[in-house]
Design goal:
Enolase-like, domain 1, Uridine Diphospho-n-acetylenolpyruvylglucosamine Reductase, domain 3, FAD-bd_PCMH_sub2, 5-stranded antiparallel sheet, FAD-bd_PCMH-like_sf, alpha+beta
Amino acid sequence: MDLNTVADVRDARLREPWQPGDAWLGGGTYLFSEPQPQLRRLVDLSRMGWEPLILDPDGSLEIAATCTIAQLYRFGRTLSAEAAPLFSQCCRAFLASFKIWNMATVGGNLCNGLPAGPMISLTAGLDGSCLLQSQTGATRTVKIVDFITGAGRKVLQEGELLRSVTLPARALDCRTAYRQASLYGLGRSGALVIGALDPVDGSMAVTISAATVRPFRFWFPLPPTKGELRRVIEATVREDDWYDDIHGLPEWRHHMGLRLAEEVRHELTQLSRDGVR
């Protein structure tokens, strides 16, 4: 779609002062998908030269904001970490064409902040942290579960940039379980739940997204019982935290969130009991 209010496109490397009506341009798959009458200038990140994916010596993974879904998918297929299957599972949750996969970025999906964003699900499920950079060059680190505060809402300040996301080595070594539900065979995620079992201390994390306005990550020092998991979810996720749109009523999302959370808990608990690694 043509953005007929945009008068200029600037190279982000020039570091010019931020102006009202500016927007960061990554892959542009969202920006050019619908009218953006508030925009006057796009600041293009495509020439920043950031390495898409860096596997650090300590085993943690840094994902640049400009990393495309296609790059992440290919990397996940070669990754030897226990949690590697989540990369392809969440990439496929896009249900997008190869053209979108080759343009859409991890950072763009996170910064849209939509409940069904599968990169939000992936990075929240693996305890990821965002590196944010202000216009002055100052940086701060925020957990993904704190970065998204509601449907389409983030903690980004005016002109602030999402530089990268880091997934800790401990999370990448976790045994994972994945469940996703939609009202339609090729529809947007109505509920997406990720479970992660830590082989070091036996702790378990269950992350609910898509069904809720923001991701909720529940951590347990030992695998919880069915009743414990349900009680914690019900006590934490408020009634108005269950998302409501054309892709699912809150009541349905509530039901599916609880159901899928129990499924991943059961799968990982069985693996733990069986000693499967």
